[in-house]
Amino acid sequence: MKIRPVLTGAFAGLVLGCAAASAQEAPAAPGRPEVKTIGDWLVRCFPVANTNPCDMFQEQVRGDDPQSRQRVLTFSLAFVPSMNRHILQITVPLDIAIQKGVTLQAGDYKSPLMKYRMCNREGCFVQIAPDNAVIEALARATVPSAGVNIVADGGKAFTLPVSLKGFAAAHDDMVAQNRAKAKSAPAGDAAAKP
Fold first, then answer.
1. Is 139 a member of any domain?
2. Which domain holds residue 133?
3. pLDDT tens track for 87-142
């Protein structure tokens, strides 16, 4: 499996192509996000009046069939300045044991169990506001990747890698942009986009 940055709309299902090179910025077309690549992360800022218009994003697709581009994992992290909280969305394929949830592991750190919020034909979603300790552990990790631990319906455990290359720098950039661009929005909008 290979990690490839590919744009998808946060919760909107909008799929856009991106060929950004490391540390480049892509100009935003009307309705499309501004995109910056930092390490293996995309920092995306959407043209919306929202309390968290930017996120950092990574997608993993199956590398054995480039034609199918089957998504294996997406990881989106946003920051809501007014609440000093993060919003995390992890998407994994269907056919998982929903009751087993997901954990993140980076080196010696293992997150608390995160429960799935819903599943649809796109996959199963974890959508939570994790403790800042989870994000701090990922930013401080000295390993090249974190593991997203899932369990398949048949009971077999899998670890899906998420590259940590550039995580801390992408996080700092995303937080700074959210602080600069965040607009007052109704309280319900804060959870609408991770």
1. yes
2. 2-185
3. 999 999 999 999 999 999 999 999 999 999 999 999 999 999 999 889 999 999 99
